[in-house]
C-alpha cells in the first residue's frame, strides 16, 4: 500500500527562504527578494508554507491591520499547481484572518492573471476597484484588480 504523507501548513521561518525563492523565481516574472520574505517574517505577518514530507510546495503571506487583512503573496510551485493546494492554502490564510476578527480580506491581482482571479472568485472575493498601472510588466505597466472578501 502506498500511503502519501499528509500535506501540512505551518509557520514560515527564515530557514525556508532559500527554498521559497527558488519557487518564487519560477512562478513570478517580478519575484520578491529574500529580504522581502525576511521582512514579512520579522514584522510578524501571517507567513505560512505548505509542504508534504520534505517538499515545500507553496507559501502565502497576509498582513493584518485592526479591521483588515491583506494577502501580500500566494504561490504554489509550478509542478504542484492545479491540484487544489492554492485553494487549501488560501482557505487556511482566510481562517487565520478570521481568527483575528478582521472584517475584510483584500488582495491585488494582475489583470492578466486569470487563473489566480478565478481562484479568488471561487473563494468569494469580488473586484471592488482597479489600480491603474500598479504592476511593472514586460512592456510598461499593468493594472491590478483590487479584490475584497467580506468576512
Ligand atoms: C494562483 C495559484 C496560487 C493557484 O494555486 P493552484 O494550486 O494552482 O490552484 P488550485 O488547484 O487550488 O485551484 C483551485 C481553483 O482555482 C481556479 N484556478 C486555479 N488556477 C487556475 C488557472 N490557471 N486557470 C483557471 N482557473 C484556475 C480553478 O477554479 C480551480 O478549481 P478547479 O481546479 O476545480 O477548476 C498558483 O497557480 C500560482 O502559484 N500561480 C503563480 C503565482 C501567482 O499567480 N500567484 C497569485 C498572485 S496574486
Largest pleated sheet: 7 strands, mixed
| Helical proportion, percent range | 25-40%
* Cα radius of gyration in angstroms: 15 Å
Strand content: 35-45%
Order of helices and strands: EHHEEEHEHEE
Instruction: Label the structural class.
Output: alpha+beta
Low-confidence stretches: none
End-to-end span in angstroms? 42 Å
Helices, by number, come to: 4
The coarse overall form would be globular
The order of strands across the largest sheet is 1-2-3-4-5-7-6
What value does the average pLDDT take? 96
Catalogue the ligands: coenzyme A
Number of strands: 7
Chain-wise SSE layout:
Elements lengths: L6 E5 L5 H11 L6 H9 L3 E7 L2 E10 L3 E9 L8 H15 L4 E7 L3 H9 L3 E12 L2 E11 L1
Parallel strand pairs: 4-5
Antiparallel strand pairs: 1-2, 2-3, 3-4, 5-7, 6-7
The structure holds coenzyme A (COA).
The site of coenzyme A (COA) has 19 residues, from strand 4, helix 3 and helix 4.
Describe this structure in words.
By secondary structure, the protein is of the alpha+beta class. 29% of the residues lie in helices and 40% in strands. The protein has 4 helices and 7 strands, in the order βααβββαβαββ. The protein has helices at residues 17-27, 34-42, 85-99, 114-122, and strands at residues 7-11, 46-52, 55-64, 68-76, 104-110, 126-137, 140-150. Strands 1-2-3-4-5-7-6 form a 7-stranded mixed beta sheet, with helices on both faces. The mean pLDDT is 96. Residues 27-28, 74-76, 81-87, 109, 113, 115-116, 118-119, 122 line the site of coenzyme A.
Amino acid at each position: 500500500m502506498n500511503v502519501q504523507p499528509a500535506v501540512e501548513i505551518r509557520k514560515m521561518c527564515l530557514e525556508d527562504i532559500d527554498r521559497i525563492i527558488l519557487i518564487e523565481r519560477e512562478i513570478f516574472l517580478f519575484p520578491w527578494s529574500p529580504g522581502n520574505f525576511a521582512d514579512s517574517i520579522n514584522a510578524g505577518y501571517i507567513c505560512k508554507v505548505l509542504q508534504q514530507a520534505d517538499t515545500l510546495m507553496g507559501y502565502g503571506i497576509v498582513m493584518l491591520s485592526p479591521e483588515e487583512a491583506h494577502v501580500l503573496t500566494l504561490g504554489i510551485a509550478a509542478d504542484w499547481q492545479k491540484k487544489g493546494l492554492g485553494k487549501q492554502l488560501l482557505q487556511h490564510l482566510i481562517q487565520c484572518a478570521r481568527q483575528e476578527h478582521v472584517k475584510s480580506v483584500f488582495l491585488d491581482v494582475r489583470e492578466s492573471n486569470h487563473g489566480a482571479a478565478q481562484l479568488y472568485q471561487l473563494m468569494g472575493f469580488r473586484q471592488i476597484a482597479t489600480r491603474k498601472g500598479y504592476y511593472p510588466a514586460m512592456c510598461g505597466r499593468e493594472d491590478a484588480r483590487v479584490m475584497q472578501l467580506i468576512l
